């Protein structure tokens, strides 16, 4: 029978979006997803996810899709700028690059010759810290940090000082096998595509998802259970769960003895110099008590029966106990019972007990076992991998509190007690983690003969001897990182730099060099005062911070406060290394890194008025400056630059023999991976492979990475770890105890008297809980509410809220409060209200929302803009109705004695904010408002894109 003729039109169901496609890496958030950029007639036609990419597997969110409007933003800078008006006015003249670089060199060269520490080099949300930290080291300044100090250092340090890895994007739940997931303080802005993919798998399998968060958005909205906790009490909740597990003997003791220091003996000798330290042999190896032999034994030995409770008499007559006993004694205390913590956390005691039971059931009664043969670090072969299908994931919601370090550690202790660290179904490490606890690299603090620091400025303190302080114990860094005030500040303290530089504490700096750090607006605590510090002058009329060099791609609020502006490219015009030396994009089953490479030459990309742009990638500019300054490692013996630009550096620079920024296609022939000589064709190989490299971990090595022989050998071969020794997880932190002993007066390095009580209090070797400082130092009756600010799923950087497409989702923010809270304070839906903290008052519009626990109010961060910034129209809602909670957040504690930060790491305590609310007398515009910046405003006409492409397509 012949086919019936049809008059239906022939349709192309799979039209090509463009005439060319290029693969690169997204920069619209920290996911760093793989993208395909389709080009038509020299313009972007479409951005889609790369289905081959290990991070997002083709998924792309609103932010990634809106990268088109990021690239074509009217706020893009066009040429280098030299300030002509007063700082903060936004008045500049355009100059050429030769003049800009010559000027920057003339400022920096005398500093390096005189005292490199007079340069403070601090970067914001860049993803090139492997370069910027190395550059600071070669310059010789200790004053370098990235944004982690006001973002997530509690998360990083809490994990790296406990389990050798951490939450955030450095670890992940076992999405394939987890049966119970607890998300603690997880908002949707970070690592969102991998999390969404994983949550989809859990929902499909019927696994339970529990969201612990004062606010229920995004992930929490699809969770099976929302725990609307009071901010800052997550640690108490964790301790109550631990209390219940200990009471019920629902603990994985075999796991604890194999992989943690639960059985290591701790000296009990109050007042002695080694009280609370581990019992060690003459070679410094930790000891335990072998019940079978009735004697001390090496804690890392096999075929012994170590004691984990009970007192031991040492040969010198003193006593010691296993660290697990100290843990049990603490958390079995009735103060951590569900009934005791329930009211403070805002969680019913019965709910806490039920969650503890469900965790134990999922961990111990699911009988998950993978039929995978593996060999442990001691040579013992195991026929299967025994699972503990309980996963936890945590983010800024628990980190950004002044008790966040201990809360992060508390969650890791909870995981260890359940045997749920890198077991099937549990939290999993992503390469290059795990690392030894703590990681080996210490912060640099002395200069070599060539002027470079002896180590990178950021690192991990192992004891008081590693602090960056002078002979009197006073800080040597402008941000006071690695001082007795914040000893374990692994990321530095970006949020203290401007106050201290203005005050000359501990000394005056000459130049502040910043990259993509919007410190005069949404990246500042105490925003109004920060703007004052940036513009304040001394009695001679000179700025107290003499010079500010700033690099950004857009006309942000911070650009207005620079003396010299070095315009950066958009992310589609640049080279970047998403490096394993920096913030990796690995997954638990493999190591990955990636590149960005220019989809466009910026000289061909006109600005919004059709004028040519002359912009350069900041990394290449930094290398150029380094060469002009003759910095070691950047010029040869004749003074000739060693690197042509950042792309050349990415390929040829070696941090150690065979170790560079990129791990893929190394060796002269490109046939080596992980380690190998530089390959001149390396970038081309990445481009041919979609912009990324991925090396799968052998199946036998994918779990128990801290003590899996195959993994340790694999990781050592790639250069991730220095030896193949097993990595012991730390229930009890000897590093913390060393600081406590120093505060008690023991040792050569002791804190100045004014810091001793603080160090002794907060450097507890076991996780502890205390009231966040702002709540403890202000009146709960005066400021009864907690206030939180978080980023939405559809915006990440402050960049996002200048994006024409993303602005259509949200162009202004509200302060959200529970209807019951509104009723209590006489506020109606959409009333304008005054919000006050101990630090200040703002006027905003309120909106009712049932997705928040009643003692908390919240808003989206970084939506509010200063008028005139980002080349938004003069009456843009972001500037007139949008607002920042930052105006209410002080950079110091209410008492004024320390930064508003965690006392262990210096993490900015954004989420400790306490407020009061009342109906406002004025309406219609948020307050405070500031003088509009002098940047050229964009046209009020709608910003459209793509209509001409569609018209040409129809032609």
TrEMBL record:
Protein name (record): Molybdopterin oxidoreductase family protein
Pfam families linked: Molybdop_Fe4S4, Molybdopterin, Molydop_binding
Keyword terms: 4Fe-4S, Iron, Iron-sulfur, Metal-binding, Oxidoreductase
SUPFAM superfamilies: ADC-like, Formate dehydrogenase/DMSO reductase, domains 1-3
PANTHER family to which the protein is assigned, alphabetical: DMSO REDUCTASE CHAIN A, TUNGSTEN-CONTAINING FORMYLMETHANOFURAN DEHYDROGENASE 2 SUBUNIT B
The keyword Oxidoreductase appears for this protein: yes
Family under the similarity heading: Belongs to the prokaryotic molybdopterin-containing oxidoreductase family.
Cofactors named for this entry: [4Fe-4S] cluster
Positions of the 4Fe-4S Mo/W bis-MGD-type domain: 19-75
Gene source species: Lysobacter brunescens
Record bears the keyword Iron-sulfur: yes
Subcellular location: Cell envelope
InterPro entries, per the entry: Asp_de-COase-like_dom_sf, MoPterin_dinucl-bd_dom, Mopterin_OxRdtase, Mopterin_OxRdtase_4Fe-4S_dom
Gene3D superfamilies: 2.40.40.20, 3.30.200.210, 3.40.50.740, Dimethylsulfoxide Reductase, domain 2
């Amino acid at each position: 029978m012949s086919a019936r003729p049809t008059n239906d039109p022939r349709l192309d169901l799979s039209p090509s979006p463009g005439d060319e496609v290029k693969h690169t890496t997204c920069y619209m958030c920290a996911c760093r997803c793989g993208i395909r950029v389709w080009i038509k007639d020299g313009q972007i036609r479409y951005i889609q996810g790369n289905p081959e990419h290990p991070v997002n597997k083709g998924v792309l969110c609103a932010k990634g899709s809106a990268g088109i409007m990021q690239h074509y933003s009217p706020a893009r800078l066009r040429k280098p700028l030299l300030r002509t008006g007063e700082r903060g006015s936004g008045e500049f003249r355009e100059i050429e690059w030769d003049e800009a670089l010559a000027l920057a060199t003339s400022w920096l060269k005398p500093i390096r010759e005189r005292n490199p520490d007079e340069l403070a080099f601090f970067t914001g949300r860049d993803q090139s810290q492997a370069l910027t930290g190395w550059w600071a080291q070669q310059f010789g300044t200790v004053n370098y940090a990235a944004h982690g100090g006001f973002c997530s250092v509690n998360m990083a340090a809490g994990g790296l000082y406990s389990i050798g890895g951490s939450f955030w994007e450095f670890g992940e739940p076992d999405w394939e096998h987890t049966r119970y997931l607890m998300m603690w303080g997880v908002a949707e802005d970070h690592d969102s595509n991998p999390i969404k993919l994983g949550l989809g798998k859990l929902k499909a399998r019927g696994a339970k998802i529990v969201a612990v968060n004062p606010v229920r958005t995004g992930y929490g909205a699809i969770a099976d259970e929302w725990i609307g906790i009071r901010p800052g009490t997550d640690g108490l909740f964790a301790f109550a769960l631990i209390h219940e597990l200990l009471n019920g003997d629902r603990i994985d003791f075999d796991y604890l003895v194999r992989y943690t220091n639960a059985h290591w003996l701790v000296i009990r000798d109050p007042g002695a110099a080694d009280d609370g330290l581990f019992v060690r042999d003459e070679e410094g190896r930790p000891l335990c008590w072998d019940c079978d032999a009735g004697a001390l034994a090496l804690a890392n030995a096999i075929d012994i029966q170590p004691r984990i409770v009970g007192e031991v008499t040492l040969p010198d007559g003193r006593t010691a106990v296993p660290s697990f006993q100290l843990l049990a004694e603490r958390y079995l205390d009735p103060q951590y019972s569900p009934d005791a913590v329930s009211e403070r956390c805002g969680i019913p005691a019965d709910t806490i007990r039920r969650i503890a039971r469900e965790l134990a059931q999922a961990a111990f009664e699911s009988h998950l076992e993978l039929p995978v043969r593996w060999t442990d670090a001691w040579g013992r072969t195991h026929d299967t991998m025994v699972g503990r299908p309980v996963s936890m994931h945590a983010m800024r919601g628990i980190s950004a509190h002044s008790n966040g370090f201990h809360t992060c550690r508390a969650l890791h202790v909870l995981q260890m007690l359940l045997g749920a660290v890198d077991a099937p179904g549990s939290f999993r490490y992503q390469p290059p983690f795990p690392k030894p606890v703590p990681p080996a690299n210490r912060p640099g603090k002395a200069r070599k003969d060539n002027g470079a620091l002896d180590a990178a400025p950021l690192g991990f303190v192992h004891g008081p001897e590693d602090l960056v302080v002078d002979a009197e114990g006073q800080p040597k860094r402008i941000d006071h990182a690695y001082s007795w005030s914040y000893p374990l500040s692994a990321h530095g303290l970006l949020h203290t730099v401007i106050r201290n530089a203005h005050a000359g504490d501990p000394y005056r700096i000459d130049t502040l060099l910043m990259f993509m750090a919007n410190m005069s607006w949404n990246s500042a605590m105490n925003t109004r005062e920060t703007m004052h510090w940036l513009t304040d002058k001394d009695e001679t009329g000179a700025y107290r911070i003499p010079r500010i060099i700033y690099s950004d791609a857009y006309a942000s609020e911070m650009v207005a406060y620079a003396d010299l502006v070095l315009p950066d490219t958009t992310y589609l015009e640049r080279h970047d290394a998403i490096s394993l030396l920096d913030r990796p994009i690995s997954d638990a089953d493999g190591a990955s890194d990636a590149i960005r490479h220019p989809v466009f030459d910026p000289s061909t990309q006109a600005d919004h008025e059709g004028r040519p742009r002359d912009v350069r990638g900041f990394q290449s500019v930094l290398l150029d400056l380094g060469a002009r300054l003759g910095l070691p490692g950047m010029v040869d013996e004749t003074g000739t630059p060693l690197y042509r630009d950042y792309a050349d550096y990415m390929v040829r620079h070696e941090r150690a023999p065979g170790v560079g920024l990129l791990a893929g296609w190394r060796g002269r022939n490109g046939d080596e991976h992980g380690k190998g000589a530089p390959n001149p064709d390396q970038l081309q190989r990445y481009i041919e492979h979609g912009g990324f490299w991925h090396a799968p971990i052998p199946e036998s090595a994918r779990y128990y990475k801290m003590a899996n022989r195959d993994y340790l050998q694999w990781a050592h071969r790639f250069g991730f770890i220095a030896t193949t020794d097993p990595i012991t997880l730390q229930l009890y932190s000897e590093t913390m105890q060393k600081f406590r002993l120093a505060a008690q007066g023991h040792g050569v390095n002791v804190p100045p008297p004014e810091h001793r009580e603080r160090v002794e209090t907060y450097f507890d070797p076991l996780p502890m809980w205390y009231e966040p400082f702002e709540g403890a130092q202000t009146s709960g009756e005066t400021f009864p509410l907690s206030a939180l600010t978080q980023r939405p799923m559809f915006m990440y950087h402050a960049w996002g809220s200048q994006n024409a497409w993303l602005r259509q989702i949200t162009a202004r923010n509200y302060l959200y409060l529970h209807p019951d809270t509104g009723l209590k304070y006489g506020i109606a839906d959409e009333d304008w209200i005054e919000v006050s903290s101990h630090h200040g008052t703002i006027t905003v519009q309120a909106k009712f929302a049932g997705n928040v626990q009643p003692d908390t109010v919240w808003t989206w961060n970084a939506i509010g803009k200063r008028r005139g910034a980002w080349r938004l129209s003069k009456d843009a809602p972001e500037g007139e109705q949008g607002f920042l909670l930052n105006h209410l957040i002080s950079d110091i504690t209410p008492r004024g004695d320390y930064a508003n930060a965690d006392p262990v790491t210096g993490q900015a305590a954004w989420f400790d904010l306490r407020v009061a609310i009342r109906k406002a007398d004025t309406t219609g515009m948020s307050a405070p408002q500031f003088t509009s910046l002098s940047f050229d405003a964009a046209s009020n006409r709608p910003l459209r894109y793509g209509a001409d492409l569609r018209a040409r397509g129809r032609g």
